[in-house]
Amino acid sequence: MSRKFMTIGMISILLLTSACAAMAQDDPAALAAESAEYCNSTAKDGMTSPTVIQDKVAVACAVLEKEGSDAFVKFQGAESEFLYEGTYMWIHSLDDGTMLMHPMKYKLNGKNVISLKDKKGKRFFSTMNKTVKANGDGWVEYFWPKPGTNEIVRKISYVKGCTMPDGRNVVVGSGLYRYDESTVESLNIQ
Question: Which end of the chain has fewer surrounding CB within 10 Å, N or C?
Fold first, then answer.
């Protein structure tokens, strides 16, 4: 009898865990909170290397070029490989500036962000699109909240253009929040 109860108990726990995960997927606010919490849990004490950011963005572009918008779910939630070292990826349209996927600022999804300004008045999404159109990729500096907080800090993001299977041109970006000043000085930051 006790084995039967243990089996039923384990099945109940698995079903409850699956239901909670499914509810987070259906609730954008819960998924954003889960993404922020997981993102912060990946932060390390040291600095993040620009090379790490570039490599992760290259992997993200490869996934998007193969899977398109179906891959957006891979960029959100606990255990996402695209939430790493205290930072994350976002995807916006190169063509019209619409935010397609932001793992934490979900209220931006579906909105045109091209005119969005940081606290110093910089239209950083516009700068990102100009950088990608001119060079294919590059680094852009702006001021943005750290994941899961309202603290506005200097952020240096690497952006790269790629084309999804449906023909949409997108910008994939990921940024440095913790960096060595001497390392970032060598980047051609816009």
Answer: N
